[in-house]
Prior knowledge:
Elements: H1 10-18, E1 32-35, E2 38-41, H2 42-45, H3 49-70, H4 78-96, H5 101-104
Antiparallel strand pairs: 1-2
Amino acid sequence: MCTKGNVVGNSEATLLQKLNVKPFEYGMVVLSVYDDGSILSSEIVSLTPDDIMAKFSKGVSNIAAMSMELGIPTEVAVPHMIANAFKNLAAISVETGYTLDVLANM
């Protein structure tokens, strides 16, 4: 009488109402997953590769910021430390009037 994708007309709706048939849908909702002795929540299981990359990038950014603040050179912080040192040298050179060859070529 009714199939998925077709519009239910007034006559079908009236007949279904007389037969006491109400629309329904069913499905499965994952609450948690058991894997090798660990119970994982549905939020962890539903992560996409883009979500994982975003979380990884955020972690690397946090490591770089923390190591820069503590003055501990790490692989992710050294490029930022070098750039900041160059900025400081450029600022000192501008304030004192001393010219750096590197700045003159820019």
